[in-house]
């Protein structure tokens, strides 16, 4: 469809193209796009974009260092009219490879040259330093013989200033050690990769740090302790360049810096083009975490500290599959917060961290635990009417079965239902759970007395109730207990707290040692199971040993969430 070889007996490229089309669903969705998407897909590397500005001193050094590390480098000349050839032999709207750099001296002037290649294998630049340019005659013979190849092969040399005038972006794909082999020429990269998803009502908090929901976004702690080696180039290490084309602080030997390349990828989006959907606008913020706050950064409760952090860097927010930025940061601790621009946008994402020196990176999450004593709050006496109704229903034994509790709660919650204009009965299953355990910290998070709280606050409410849950489990609970308006009402919250209490109490009876590991038989997973189909499924999927961190999967098997 798009790719063919000049050699009639060479057919691997169209076969590879067909496989690529099958991966994305059709040839149609492959039409157009950015060079770095192909770079990343075919190499597994990390792509970044440098938006060019004329007279930018750091670009030449950036390209030279990238090629020394065996990175893939390309350049594009943007066009609103599709591809067309200019008088100088360039093709606008076309992608070129950058294959080399060289400095030559003409008298007292140093000329910086870039070598480019048209992937067509023909149609070359005809301006200064082209194959037929007379400037080559002023160079020593050995230089001219080493650099100049007078052949219509699509490859040509171009002076940096002409390059900046005609091209708009440089795209670099840094390759991982697995691709480059044991010892790449320019030194390897240290890599961390995280897979995640923004979920509406849970962690899709938007891109504004001042927004109420921003703290719910996924967060990753990055520690950089080893600064880069000094670069002897007069332009400094990378010339202070960032991926947005904005020049950073002037490099100098006084403040050591660490180079880290952050890449955010939207997964599984290209095939949605056939349905009329496109890429979300995404990006990330980088905050510096000072040492006094490090000890607090171990649970979602600390996310309220975000407004106190100093933003060290940020990527551009744009509607592209890959959004990357090369950051030059001082040694220390940082928080990386990837997000979609609009709160509530859902997508799968991959965050990758490439650094020239060693680093550590972890996702901010909470260990699963529960303090059930929080739910045993102070005794609150019933109103007289409810007390009389309780006595009538409970009898001398002062015990209620589920239907009786359902009737009592219906009367007790009638004023709240009238105030919020809601209707319906308390579910019998909820009442069964309340017979086993009851507790709620609901009013604290229902500040407007509306009878509901925002689903983003469910995690905080459960935390106040004594439950410390990791991201995976909290996402499962949020998806189950929120309504279509992303709200959690009183019944839903009590049902959630009751189920968690029952699960933790049941697990605590089977704890084996102090390592948070429980050993259960299939019959012990959920006592009193009557669903033979569920029991059969559990025998196929549930391991004999279940760790508390696997609680989300266990709840799904046990039909809790």
Automatic annotation (TrEMBL):
Gene that encodes it: CAPN12
GO cellular component terms attached to this protein's record: cytoplasm
Positions of the catalytic residues: 94, 118
Stored SUPFAM superfamilies: Calpain large subunit, middle domain (domain III) (SSF49758), Cysteine proteinases (SSF54001), EF-hand (SSF47473)
The keyword Calcium is annotated on this UniProt entry: yes
Alphabetic keyword roster: Calcium, Hydrolase, Metal-binding, Protease, Thiol protease
Domain EF-hand: 433-468
Pfam families: Calpain_III (PF01067), Peptidase_C2 (PF00648)
Residue ranges constituting the Calpain catalytic domain according to the UniProt record: 1-176
Name this protein carries in UniProt: Calpain 12
Protein family membership: Belongs to the peptidase C2 family.
GO BP, sorted A to Z: proteolysis
Listed PANTHER family: CALPAIN, CALPAIN-12
GO molecular function: calcium ion binding; calcium-dependent cysteine-type endopeptidase activity
Tagged with keyword Nucleotidyltransferase: no
